[in-house]
Design a protein that fits this description.
about 180 residues; alpha/beta; 6-stranded mixed sheet; globular; 6 helices; two-stranded antiparallel sheet
Length: about 180
């Protein structure tokens, strides 16, 4: 059974958040607020947060910045996962993955289906590993960010979550 083993120590993880949007700014970025609040409430560190336009070069530059930043363990992006012409986040980031995490999308859609029904198919959320940085590409709505965090990420980035979690494998990501 999945559980939190209170006898184990909690190890905080460092996050960066990139919001992909042509219309949001620091005052209207509810998805970024949602992620920042949940990251901090869980006892983790937010290293930095930014907003970039729905533009392949801007998205790629933000991802490259996060991956190059030794203080960042996890990058979460929000926005640009739909099907409109400006929705290019997964198309930009997936080719950068060293390893794709197919299970994240499957679990996210299962969770999301319980909340928004079949509308979940309108998201192309994805995740993977670039070097030693975990990257999660979420839809742009605050609800989707909440659902991904509360139902998946909060457990996988809790070093006490059993039977396994990402924190315990982080030291081994450089193995060859």
């Amino acid at each position: 059974m999945p559980r939190i083993d209170e006898s184990l120590p909690f190890h905080p993880v460092s996050f960066a958040v990139v919001i992909v949007s042509d219309t949001r700014d620091a005052e209207t970025d509810k998805s970024g607020d949602t992620l920042e609040g949940r990251i901090k409430d869980a006892g983790h560190r937010l290293v930095w947060r930014t907003i970039v336009p729905d533009d392949r070069d801007a998205i790629r530059a933000a991802v490259e910045k996060a991956v190059a930043d030794e203080a960042v363990d996890v990058l979460i992006t929000s926005g640009g996962t739909g099907f409109t012409g400006r929705d290019v986040t997964p198309d930009t980031i997936e080719p950068m993955f060293d390893k794709k995490m197919d299970g994240f999308s499957a679990v996210f859609h299962a969770v999301s289906r319980e909340i928004i029904g079949t509308s979940t198919i309108q998201s192309r959320c994805t995740a993977g590993l670039i070097g030693t940085t975990f990257v999660f590409v979420l839809p742009g709505s605050p609800g989707a960010c909440r659902d991904a965090w509360d139902n998946i990420l909060v457990e996988q980035f809790n070093s006490r979550f059993m039977p396994c979690n990402f924190v315990e494998i982080m030291p081994r990501l450089t193995e060859t």
